[in-house]
Amino acid sequence: MHQSKVLLEVQNLKVNYRFRDKKIRAVDDVSFSVNEGDRFAIVGESGSGKSTLGLSIIRLCPGEASGSVRLNNIDILKLSQEELRKLRGSDISVVFQDPNSALNPVLRVGDQLVEVFTTHGYSKAEAYSRSVELLETVGIPEPEKRIMSYPHQLSGGMKQRVIIAMAIALNPKLVIADEPTSALDVTIQAQILKLIKELSETKKLSMILITHDIGVAAEVCNQIGIMYAGRMLEIGAFEDIFHNPKHPYTQSLMTCVPKGLKCVLKPLPGSVPDMSDLPSGCKFHPRCPYANGKCKTIEPKLEKVDGRYVACHAVW
Amino acid sequence: MIPLIRELARSKMVLASMLILLSFIFMALFADFIAPYSPIESDLSISNKPPSWEHPFGTDELGRDILSRVIHGAKLTLTISFAATAIGALVGIVVGVLSGFYGRAVDTITQRFTDVLLALPGFLLAVMFVAIMGNNIATVITSVALSLVPSYVRMSRGLTLQVKELEYVLAARQLGVNSIKIMTRHIIPNISPTLIAQITLNLGTAILFASGLGFLGIGVPPPEPEWGTMLGTGRTYMFYAPHLIIFPGLAVFLVVFSFNKIGDRIGEIIASK
Amino acid sequence: MNRVLILIPTLLGLVTFLFILIRLIPGDPARVLAGLMASEEDVELIREQLGLNKPLYVQYFTYMANLFTFNLGVSARTDSPVLYEVMARLPNTLALALSSTALAVALGVPLGVFAASRKSSRLDTLVSTFSIVGISLPTYWLGLIMITIFAVELHLLPAGGYGTPAHFILPTVTIALFLTAFIVKITKASVIDSMEKEYVVTARSKGLTERVILYKHVLRNALIPVITIIGLQFGSLLGGAVITETIYAWPGLGRLIIDAINNRDYPMVQGSIFIFALLYALVNLITDLIYTIVDPRVRLG
Predict the structure, then answer these.
(1) Do the two chains A and B touch, given a threshold of 8 Å on CB pairs and at least 3 pairs?
(2) Span B19-27+59-272: which CATH code?
(3) With a threshold of 0.95, does the pTM exceed it?
(4) B264 in contact with chain C, both atoms CB, cutoff 8 A
(5) Which residues neighbour A1 within 8 Å (Cβ) at sequence distance 6 or greater?
(6) Per-domain boundaries in chain B
(7) Which of C197, C207, C217 minimises the CB distance to A85?
(8) For B225, how many CA atoms within 13 A lie in the half-sphere containing its CB?
(9) Is residue A229 one of the residues assigned to a domain?
(10) Does ipTM surpass 0.95 in this model?
(11) What is the reported pLDDT for C301?
(12) Terminus-to-terminus CA distance in chain B, angstroms?
């Protein structure tokens, strides 16, 4: 295993926002790092704060963020608006979840692709020819024709390819993919995942993939972070965690009951907590089969156990 | 009802509007007791006098006290407003719902008729009707009502079409429930909120139309103290008696504003449900 | 295209409706024109001239045939061709309508965008109140007051009539106020709605400047409903032209219609309302067309 350089380092990231007079700690003291070449999955149920986490890396989320997010040692949270703007799209980019709403309906697809280039200094002519190439790279047939289309003239899968094209246009160092396949049909999902994986290999992109679906993470990723109620519960290499999950929550996610050809997750009792009214101590304790007194009062910190990081009192 | 009023009263402006309306309603009901003078007795010796202690709003070209005329005019204006809106809305909604519900031939015919009526802007339509029927209170009410009908037909038809396809309505129809029952039990309650907001706004429009007709001389005729008519006749003398055109117009503005403010707020409340 | 086709039966329906309606207006036009002193023969003569003694269905067919050739007849009052009189005044009404719309858009859209970009509840209330005031103010009252202030007291502007650019100012402002209030409200709501859309986040993630995001992404979308509303209001504006033209003695189509009605001038009433309806329909059509140009989702395919 060669030594990989650390690309992104997130330390003690907290994102709070106000919702109807209540303070919501969407991301609560999260730390992790992504190396060059990693494909890091952030997995969690809806409401776990994973999307907020992903988007706050480039400050696209509402709310106050504190802590540090370093890309090649530059703290993104401390950049000026103009520096941040330059970073977006060219060093870090985003693939969004819903292709139907992520594209502007009144602008041509080509227009939306070209502007990624032109806003970062390229000439229109160059932007155009590169855009046509990009459409081809992401597997859109007849790119010179399609580039003139409007979003509503394309299928869901094609729209998502366009969004991916926009994200890889300037060969960013890091691509954040926020549930890139959740809004697509199952057959298309597989195609898109395959595309994402190929692209990250050929273009040597590092990626953060946010998803609620372990299967998706398994397809693409080599690192994984399990998120719950704004906190990371377990972080490490995908293989390790998949075959040997240590945190009770992770265990329940990884355990599934074979039902015919599919593997269905065994549901845990209870449900994800309301973010404005979190339990004390370990946020998972109300649903945890191993919870003890300590779990109810003291929030566990991430400790290195068995080659990965786990935040749990009951793991020893 | 009561919780709605409480919710409305939350905003200061809406509260003020409700109070304004209540004062005008009060004026309308008790005009005979509040007004200091008769609204129709004229005294040419004091014609066109500016505001004074005896006549706070001044007198008009026939020496009548403007304040008293404005107070009595409230009864006229509010009557026209409520009557015209009620008739227009009722006719329009019934036609619209029936048209949307039954569809086919009924719908097509209604639509063509509505198109014809909509070929002219609302006010002009009212002008036309008044021209045919002559101008008195009854015809003004009818004309304004008729000019409001087409938009109610359109609106309630559109809403009915939407509601018609809702699952439980489809279910009811499948089960063979009586059509009238479906319309009253399912469709009307669903489309009511939007329509109510529209009706409140139309209360103001009705006044603007009616007083507009009065201003042009084809509305409620003198000596009735209709505010628009007062402005229309006052216009002749406005260059040297400007007070003639201030107060009746102010009255129209206050009432219409209040209706619009309240209607707007009702619309907001309904939209947030 | 099929919008245009539906137009034809609608207009036919309207003119038939008009025909019937006008015949219902009380008063014998022949007598009115001949005057109270006229003898029966004179009245009969006038009746001949206007063709009012022919059976109803003959009148109807003549009427329809004439309409197709745009022969709107001759004013029963002045003997001048209806079409001529209408065309002489139509541009005036249009000019006023266009200038007020232009003013309202020039003021209203920037104000609406501005209000949308500042998230202050005080400003919100102010804008909302201003909008409601704008639509509640009776045009005739506003007009009269403005004349009193600017023409009578301050002697700055003419009180009415037509001729110089100065004559345009008061009528335009009077009409524009109402429309501006409307436009500010709609623009603000639309811009706020657009700014919260997903594609704005996408745009930001690509590193676009806020300026580009506003003009290229937000406004392009936000202004679509605004355009529709302006189109609809333009029609209403034409309807209210009657009042404005009366106040300012503006030689326009609205005044022509009112005068014709009061004078029982059948041909003039028919002709002018027909042209008016045509104009109104044209405005609606143009609005629809603009809408298809501006919103690619609506275009076929």
Answers:
(1) no
(2) 1.10.3720.10
(3) no
(4) yes
(5) none
(6) 19-27+59-272
(7) C207
(8) 31
(9) yes
(10) no
(11) 44
(12) 15
